[in-house]
Amino acid sequence: MDKELTPNQRKLSRTYLVYRALTGLWFVSAVWLYFYRLFITDQQVGILDGFAFAIGLIAEVPSGALADRFGRDKMVKLGQLLAGSGFLIQAFGSNFVPFFVGQAIMMIGVSFVSGADEALFFEKLNFNRASVNWRKLMTRGSQVTLAAALVATIAGGLLNGINPRIPWALTGLALISSIFIMWSIKDTRPEKTKRRVSIELREHLISIKEGFAQFLTPKLRLYVPIIIAVQGLFYTFGWGLLRLILLDRFHFSPFLGSVAIATSGLVTVGILAVMHKYAEKISERRVLALISLTAAASLLLSIADIGMWGYVVILILYAGERTLYPFMSEVLNNRIEERQRATVLSVASFLYTLPYVALAPIIGSLSTRGHLEYFLIVWAFLIFTSVVLYLLFKKKDTFVSMTKKETEVETRVPEIST
């Protein structure tokens, strides 16, 4: 990829990788539930997450529209400031209220960043759409993020034993520091594409409505089942209660849990390296189906009392989330218009965040009562269904595309006079 890039594209690519490294330093990733448990129950954690993530969800789609209008660079910087501040508030909390306030602020910040940073870099880099350069950079970015997360996860597990507040404070500071890396990157789209600053509410709502409408079009609707069921599961696992509850179900201690997550990240880096090397040869349909079916199988495997063998489940879900992301990013960015890119990406984030808003209280309650298997069985069935729908839509989409190309070729063939 590097030989094909301009000097500016190389510089921006390096900036993107540093940015991804800083935003991957989540020192709390393997220990946050144990910190909450010092003060509140799993059921309260589920309620807290449900309401806080709902607030973030409400901010999700408007944030993309605001980024398209006011400037994606501004939304990214504001979002990382809010996200980091939310962690700092929780770091010094000792009951439900500061945890809820901090979590809500953090989720609003994450919503502001979601889609805006990706859309900003995609526009600034201006890769050839016919190439796989963007997917390669996203894959490399995922590797860098995982490497940073590996260090942060192990460090967080160790620091939790010293003082459980330290991982929270360090995560907040890392997110805030990413602002300075992005400081020189400006959203330089023509003013006519940014929209005027003083916009009317009606125009803003129309923009959001158009973003949702994009997912009803043939070019994007085939991915909706995967986004909701599969990416929704990965979001619940990566951001929500599920990962740490599963680690607890498999009898991992806080430190061993951090080791399990870190080593899963290390293995995933290797998988992403292979994907990066063979990017041109990898089939989207096979990868999406394989990741989805493997994720569903891992949920069913979690029903059994498999002890430390549960590491296999953690690895599958961890790697699945990271390997699916570059493909979905490429699909969405290549199939949406520039003027609505951040809005549509935020709608996608809305769709895969939505399940956890409802699932957080349910998972917390089922965990408290010892009946998590109900969720595992139902969601595995939903994933199997989503794969079937995706393959049916994909087959139809491929047929329509081929028919369209054949028609275009026929119209270009000159008539032979007789």
From TrEMBL:
<protein>
    <recommendedName>
        <fullName>Major facilitator superfamily (MFS) profile domain-containing protein</fullName>
    </recommendedName>
</protein>
<feature type="transmembrane region" description="Helical">
    <location>
        <begin position="287"/>
        <end position="320"/>
    </location>
</feature>
<feature type="transmembrane region" description="Helical">
    <location>
        <begin position="222"/>
        <end position="246"/>
    </location>
</feature>
<keyword id="KW-0472">Membrane</keyword>
<dbReference type="InterPro" id="IPR020846">
    <property type="entry name" value="MFS_dom"/>
</dbReference>
<feature type="transmembrane region" description="Helical">
    <location>
        <begin position="168"/>
        <end position="185"/>
    </location>
</feature>
<keyword id="KW-1133">Transmembrane helix</keyword>
<feature type="transmembrane region" description="Helical">
    <location>
        <begin position="17"/>
        <end position="35"/>
    </location>
</feature>
<dbReference type="InterPro" id="IPR036259">
    <property type="entry name" value="MFS_trans_sf"/>
</dbReference>
<feature type="domain" description="Major facilitator superfamily (MFS) profile">
    <location>
        <begin position="1"/>
        <end position="397"/>
    </location>
</feature>
<dbReference type="InterPro" id="IPR053160">
    <property type="entry name" value="MFS_DHA3_Transporter"/>
</dbReference>
<dbReference type="Pfam" id="PF07690">
    <property type="entry name" value="MFS_1"/>
</dbReference>
<feature type="transmembrane region" description="Helical">
    <location>
        <begin position="374"/>
        <end position="393"/>
    </location>
</feature>
<feature type="transmembrane region" description="Helical">
    <location>
        <begin position="47"/>
        <end position="66"/>
    </location>
</feature>
<feature type="transmembrane region" description="Helical">
    <location>
        <begin position="340"/>
        <end position="362"/>
    </location>
</feature>
<keyword id="KW-0812">Transmembrane</keyword>
<dbReference type="GO" id="GO:0022857">
    <property type="term" value="F:transmembrane transporter activity"/>
</dbReference>
<feature type="transmembrane region" description="Helical">
    <location>
        <begin position="252"/>
        <end position="275"/>
    </location>
</feature>
<feature type="transmembrane region" description="Helical">
    <location>
        <begin position="143"/>
        <end position="162"/>
    </location>
</feature>
<dbReference type="InterPro" id="IPR011701">
    <property type="entry name" value="MFS"/>
</dbReference>
